[in-house]
Amino acid sequence: MSEKPAVVLVHGFWGGAAHWSKVIVELHRRGFTDLHAVENPLTSLADDAERTRKMVRQVDGPVLLVGHSYGGAVITEAGDLPNVAGLVYIAAFAPDAGESPGQISQELPPAAFENIAPDSDGYLWLKQDRFHESFCQDLDADEALVMAVTQKAPLGSTFGDNVTSPAWKKKPVWYQVSAQDRMIHPDNERRMAQRMNPRKIVELDAGHASLASQPGPVADLIETAADELGS
């Protein structure tokens, strides 16, 4: 029986659970055998938080919740369950009570903000021909193309959904900043990280999709969190 906690991975906007593929392989290689990746509907923060809670409730034992991008807002909202032992943020939003990802982005707009486009049904897309430069400039063109074509668009209203009770005020936290992020301003990431008083902040010379471009260092931070919780 593994002594490592279960890890529940939560994706963000314009992606799905498969965005964690390289991190999953890396964690499994390191002995993490209880791995889960939520597939969020991206229809509202409440819907996504509830989907994440349902997965966490299925785990018998402590859970380390890991969120990328908007997934950070989801784990902030859903991380209040008693078996959630800690929160790891990967280039992610970490809103306070009454804050939304959209509000945080408007206060300090990221470089690629203008490459987000609404459709006639109310979904927000990252323009396919701008996806590589915006979301994952440090991946190769083929990988970026697949991400662009398979992107999962959120309902635009989700951007404005406020966090109610931030789990990071009660749970231990770790944070990874992407210094070359064009989807969340790096200074916003630094500000959100610092106000949570995390156990550790790691800054990578990476774009927004650090979970795909630097899965080793991302897995290092998750493993550090797991080890510290275990001790």
Any descriptors?
single chain; 231 residues; alpha/beta; six-stranded parallel sheet; 9 helices; 36% helix; 18% strand; globular; Sec-Metab_Biosynth_Hydrolase; AB_hydrolase_fold
Word description of this protein:
InterPro entries: AB_hydrolase_1 (IPR000073), AB_hydrolase_fold (IPR029058), Sec-Metab_Biosynth_Hydrolase (IPR052897). Residues 7-220 form the AB hydrolase-1 domain. This is AB hydrolase-1 domain-containing protein. The chain is of the alpha/beta class. It has a single domain, classed as 3-Layer(aba) Sandwich (Rossmann fold), CATH 3.40.50.1820. Helices cover 36% and strands 18% of the residues. It has nine helices and eight strands. The protein has helices at residues 21-29, 45-57, 71-78, 101-107, 128-135, 141-149, 186-195, 210-213, 215-230, and strands at residues 6-10, 35-38, 63-69, 84-92, 116-118, 124-126, 173-178, 200-204. It has a six-stranded parallel beta sheet, sandwiched between helices. A two-stranded antiparallel sheet has the order 5-6. 48% of the residues are buried. The mean pLDDT is 97.
